C-alpha cells in the first residue's frame, strides 16, 4: 500500500506524527509512505523506517514572494514530484487550508479531519473522506486515531513508539556527563526567566555535571553566553542543524526545555527531559516519552493563556508570572528523580 502523508510543520507537530506512523506500519507491513514536509525538517522523516520518499516543500518561503520566478519554478517542480505516483491514500495530518490544498494537487483518495476536528474547518472541503477525532485529546492520540480510521485498523492501546533510527556514529561522547538546556522559543510567554536558567546551571555544575547550550538566533546566542558565564562547565555550542542536535541530545544525561520542538525530539529519543509549561497546555501538546516529564504552572489564574506575550498585571517577582513557582530547585529535583 502506498500512502502520501502531508504534515509540513512545525517540528513538534511532525514528531507527534511518528507514533501514528509506527502504528500504521505494524498494522500494514507492506505500507510505504511518501512524506510532504517543509524543507527545514526533512531530516526527521528520514529517521523512520516506514518513509521511503521525502518531498520537500517551501511554503514559508513561497508566501513571501509568491509571484517571483524562482517561486513559480520551485512550485512547478514540487507539483511534478507529487504527480509521479498515484497513491492508495493521501492523508492530511495537519488539518490546515494550506495542507489540504496539497492533497488536491496529488493523485489518490484524499482523507483528513472532519470540519469539527480540523484546526481550520474549511480544510475538510478538500477531502473525499472526513474523519471525526475529538479535539480535547493530546495531539499524539489524535493522530494515532486519525491514522487508524483512515487505514482501517484498530486503535492500538500500546504506548507511543516513535521508532527513530538516528546515526550517532560521530556524536560527541563527552567524558563528563552533560545536560542540555533548550531555552529558545518563539513565544515570549514561553521563555523561562533567564536568572532561573543561571541558577539551575549553578545547581547542575556544582553537582559535577557539564551543560551544553545553543541558540537558533542572535538573541538566543547572547542569552546562552550569559547563562554560560555562571560556570566554566557550561559550553555554548555553535548553531546546530536538527540532525546535529539529535546527536547531541542522544548522549545527554538529561534535558531541560521550554515548550519547543527540540523538547519533543528529546522525548522521542527516550532521554530524561523536563519540559516547562506556562502559557501553553501540556495536556494537549506536552512531551510524551519513556522518561519525559512535564511541569506545568498552576498559577496565576490566567495560566495557560495560550498567548504569545504575557499580559498578567498582578504582582509577581518574575516575568512571565506563570513560572514563579517552577523554580530551579524544583526542576533540579525532578531531573534527579528521572
In short:
Helix content is 35%, strand content 19%. With 338 residues, the protein is α/β, with parallel strands linked by helices.
What does this structure look like?
- Helix content is 35%, strand content 19%.
- It is an alpha/beta fold.
- The chain folds into two domains: 2-151, Rossmann fold, CATH 3.40.50; 178-337, Glycogen Phosphorylase B (Rossmann fold), CATH 3.40.50.2000.
- The strands form two sheets. The chain has a six-stranded parallel sheet, sandwiched between helices. The protein has a six-stranded parallel sheet with strand order 9-8-7-10-11-12, sandwiched between helices.
- α5 (97-105) links the parallel β4 (86-92) and β5.
Structural class determined from secondary elements: alpha/beta
Biggest sheet: strand arrangement:
3-2-1-4-5-6
Could you name the CATH homologous superfamily of the largest domain? Glycogen Phosphorylase B
Low-confidence stretches: none
Radius of gyration: 21 Å
Walk me through the topology.
Blueprint: E1 2-6, H1 11-27, E2 32-38, H2 43-46, E3 51-57, H3 59-64, H4 69-83, E4 86-92, H5 97-105, E5 107-113, E6 129-131, H6 139-151, E7 178-182, H7 194-206, E8 210-213, H8 218-228, E9 234-236, H9 242-250, E10 254-258, H10 261-268, E11 273-277, H11 282-285, E12 292-296, H12 328-337
Parallel strand pairs: 1-2, 1-4, 2-3, 4-5, 5-6, 7-8, 7-10, 8-9, 10-11, 11-12
